[in-house]
Design a protein that fits this description.
The protein is mainly alpha-helical. It has helices at 5-13, 21-43, 47-59, 63-91, 93-112, 117-145, 149-180, 185-204, 218-238, 246-268, 282-312, 317-323, 325-346, 348-366, 375-401, 410-444, 451-483. Helices cover 80% and strands 0% of the residues.
Length: 494
């Protein structure tokens, strides 16, 4: 039997039959391999955050330098995603996937063994670069492996649940490893994931070299990578500098110009990095925007609720991570229901906005938290409601964003989903951190900085972030209603 996954997909799509029984049975093992690798990438957006104070103490770098441990990863990952996705289309998904996994693991080992700050940053940047190869190839392989609509919905339910819950899992795992082992193990743990993914991927994945291999769009690659770099860098700087600072608006302005030039070039390029036909489908375009918008709002839960639990309620890192597990459980169940039952029957136009509204409502409930709130009565119920809302939004949106793609576009289409999620996260982090810091400053103006006043200022800053996160989810609901097509649907890959 041919190893060409394109032939496999075309046969299924055209209705000429499926793969043999062995391939049919192994598809769930393929999902396990892809999910494990994707979890490794998603975890690294948050798992290192809890370990930062310990790493800073061990390596002796300043508070001002601390942000680069997070920013170096985000810059490389966000700016190279489209390039990584196109490489998967040109070279082969399996090859790029396995290269990404191995490179990510070796980069994690480098960062974990870092004797100084420079090596740590280099390792984190390399993690981001290899993650940009791994993430779109993983989603493309998933999209091509699960071509049949029923199986596809289940698979994307799992994948979407990981995308939505990975931040919470990262907080828990980071807390456990930092508290009981060492901050270095928040990086070394990737070696365990990688070994399993490489062994499974080598035997199970059918990567297929493309039958037609157009040339790489080098001008488009440079424009897109530079533009996305400026976008992520500008928003990252906004967390630590004023919005009026040249370090913020300079990169953002350059990003707008570069991305506009990239769009213009894609219209005339013979071999475009991102064929504009990928953006032409209405449901797909809506999903890209929803993933970015709701991804930004989701940071209001993981980021500021983490701060609240640890600083206001004095939760340990491990207990903080455990606090998010009920939300993750609800999210995973809802992800399956939304992708398998609700969206095929009612369509995304009703389900996704409903989820965004539920998420917005849950976020408004967090605004009432104070120093005397309890987890069981005041946090747990709304975390579970939040899991319900996110489970109705993110898994269907990610699945729809990659449905009906041409086989030669699955890599770059998948990369676009990851790019939107990354950009949404960068914007959400910068915007919400800035708004929260401003709210705390305003609260303290004219007040004596007593311990009680500082604690109340902190609570006020969190409340402000929750309100804005709720507003972001409301924007996601409006966009969903306006852009998604109505009616039930079949999300198979053509």
């Amino acid at each position: 039997m041919s190893n060409d996954i394109h032939d496999h997909t075309a046969a299924v799509s055209a209705g000429h039959g499926a793969t043999d029984d062995r391939d049919h049975a192994r598809r769930w093992w393929v999902l396990g391999v892809i999910a494990l690798a994707q979890l490794m990438v998603v975890l690294d957006a948050t798992i290192v955050n809890i370990a930062l104070p310990s790493a800073q103490k061990a390596l002796g770098f300043s508070d001002g330098s601390r942000q680069w441990v997070v920013t170096a990863y985000a810059l490389a990952f966000g700016s190279l995603l489209l390039f990584g996705g196109r490489l998967a289309d040109l070279i082969g998904r399996k090859t790029v996937f396995l290269t990404g996994v191995v490179g990510f693991a070796l980069s994690s080992a480098l960062a974990g063994a870092a004797p100084g700050f420079g090596t740590l940053i280099a390792g984190r940047a390399l993690q981001g670069a290899f993650g940009a190869l791994l993430a779109p190839a993983a989603l493309a392989l998933l999209n091509l492996t699960f071509a049949r609509s029923g199986d596809r919905a289940k698979a994307f339910g799992v994948y979407g649940a990981i995308a939505g819950a990975g931040g919470g899992i990262g907080l828990l795992l980071g807390g456990v490893l930092t508290e009981h082992f060492s901050w270095r193990w928040t990086l070394y743990i990737n070696l365990v994931f990688a070994v399993l993914a490489v062994i499974g991927g080598s035997f199970l994945l059918r990567g297929g070299r493309p039958a037609h291999r157009p040339r790489l769009d080098l001008p488009g690659t440079v424009l897109a990578s530079a533009g996305l770099f400026g976008l992520v860098y500008g928003f990252s700087n906004a967390e630590h500098h004023h919005w009026s600072s040249p370090l913020t608006w300079g990169p953002l302005g350059a990003a707008v110009i570069l991305l506009a030039a990239f769009t213009a070039w894609q219209k005339v390029s013979a071999h475009p990095l991102l064929p504009l036909r990928v953006l032409a489908d209405r449901n797909r375009a809506a999903s890209f925007i929803v993933v970015a918008v709701c991804g930004a709002g989701l940071f209001g839960v993981f980021l500021f609720l983490t701060y609240y639990l640890q600083t206001s309620l004095a939760f340990t890192p491990v207990r903080t991570g455990l606090a998010f597990l009920p939300m993750i459980g609800v999210l995973m169940v809802t992800a399956q229901i939304s992708t398998i039952v609700l969206v095929p029957r009612f369509g995304p136009k009703y389900i996704v906005p409903a989820g965004a509204l539920i998420g917005a409502f849950a976020l408004t409930r967090f605004t009432a938290l104070n120093m005397h709130s309890t987890y069981a009565a005041d946090i747990l119920p709304w975390l579970m409601v939040m899991g319900l809302g996110v489970g109705l939004v993110m898994p269907p949106a990610i699945g729809l964003a990659t449905s009906n793609l041409r086989p030669e576009d699955t890599g770059v289409g998948s990369a676009t989903v990851n790019t939107m999620q990354q950009i949404g996260g960068a914007i959400g982090t910068a915007l919400l951190n800035t708004l929260a810091a401003g709210a705390a400053t305003d609260y303290l103006r004219g007040r004596r900085p007593t311990e009680q006043a500082l604690a109340q200022a902190q609570l006020h800053s969190y409340s402000t972030a929750y309100w804005w996160s709720a507003a972001i989810f409301l924007v996601g609901a409006v966009i969903s209603v306006a852009l998604y097509r109505g009616g039930g649907m079949d999300t198979h890959t053509e």
